[in-house]
Amino acid sequence: MGHNTLLSAILLAVTAFNASASTLFSTFPDAKYPEDKLVHFTPFNVITAIDGSNISVLPVSGKLTKHSFDLPNSYTLELVINNYLDQLKKLNAEILFQCQQEACGEPYELEAQLAPSITVDTKEPDAYVAAKLTGSSGDVYSIIYVSRRDWGSTNVQIVALEIIPEPLGLIEANPAFLQQAPTQVEIKDRRSEDEQGSADHPLLGRMPGSFISDYMQTNFTQVPVITGISAAGYQTQSLDAKVTRISYRMPRKYSMFEISRNYAAAANKLGAEAVFHCKGEACGDDAKLIRAMKLHQDDKEDEWQDYQLFKLSRPSGDVYFDIYAQGYYKGVPADTTVRVMELTALKDDRVVINLDALTEAISQSGKATLEGLLFDYDSDQMLPESKPVLEVLANYLKQHPTLDFYVVGHTDDKGDRNYNQSLSQRRAAAVIKQLTELYQIPASQLTAHGNGEYSPVASNANEAGQRLNRRVELVLRSDKK
């Protein structure tokens, strides 16, 4: 179809019409990549004058329909605009304003007025026409914006805005709701999913619907708590305490705020002193925070974390408890870990091993449990209280230089199996390192082995049995393999 017949192809009868950008004008015959957009109701600024950097607008509101397409570069701005102006004249439209290229002013200021309904090309020449028409149901504003693409095509954007009253009856209000008392979201009880042998601590209960995903209790250890954060990093305080650590999997229906506030309210009822609190990115990198607390826990999102530390005083020794809540993306709750730390002194009467007892045990059964070898919580760092046991062990090995041994680490069955095996291996290796470096025991005499949770000597269903299962043994070798 040639340009001479283009006018007849886009001619629209000058009768009453229901306007929209896709029906007010037919599409050019060579149009490519057509797109349509409908906005139910929106405000729109119709440009009515441009004087340098000053742009005058007529604010209107209504139903907006947009039609856009590309034309070959053989269509000039003038040809496209003149065709639309001719049709607007036949529709008895009132031309409110028109401009081309430099007369349209600064492109960025034009963009600020027309966005987001019309995309302004701030680098290429453009043309703009604003017209007012009278439709069967009221006034209609038509905006035509034409620009040259930097790759040579001509882009056309046509907006029709039908003036209609703002449709404010789309949502129905329910006054009866205001007469109802608030109801709580129903949350299913999931205690049946608790880890075997776990239980809530007597000091603090749980959020309804949560279940215990990880549980650990130890009679005496050193555990760090967060007492502050500065540019230099985390300030921690190391507590010598009996520790109960409980990780709860939280229902998704809770918010992080609700979890944090409920634990804070429980602490307030106990009369606990708030020592430290941080939330979100103010807690810093969550992976670093977890390491500073020596938690065995996955990191989630820095934005969704909350840490609280409280202190209680009692005659038999102070009690600290902290709560570390984490969330997934957009604050969906993940695990909340509660630690209760009851300050206590080391009971050193566990060290029953001596040289005679060690010699007899190896002679009779080929192995001996090294009672009194103590490690920092969840670590292969040996505590100073272990030195007497190391001295007895070193004396025995020096008296039997021709015998070879395994040093075997064991754990209870709490936590991940692979992690338990790794921890037991590292603890066995730490014992050998101390013996070789401090007491000059030949490294060839000893071999480290981590047996993890696979050889319990007592039931893991209670703390007493778990304590017995967390041990290091010296095992006689009959050969060197």
Automatic annotation (TrEMBL):
Gene3D superfamilies membership: OmpA-like domain
Main location: membrane
Protein's UniProt keywords contain Cell wall biogenesis/degradation: no
Pfam family, one: OmpA
Signal peptide location: 1-21
Heme in keyword set: no
OmpA-like domain ranges (all copies): 362-480
Subcellular location: Cell outer membrane
Keywords: Cell outer membrane, Membrane, Signal
Family annotation (InterPro entries): Bact_OuterMem_StrucFunc (IPR050330), OMP_bac (IPR006664), OmpA-like (IPR006665), OmpA-like_sf (IPR036737)
Protein name: OmpA family protein
Organism: Shewanella electrica
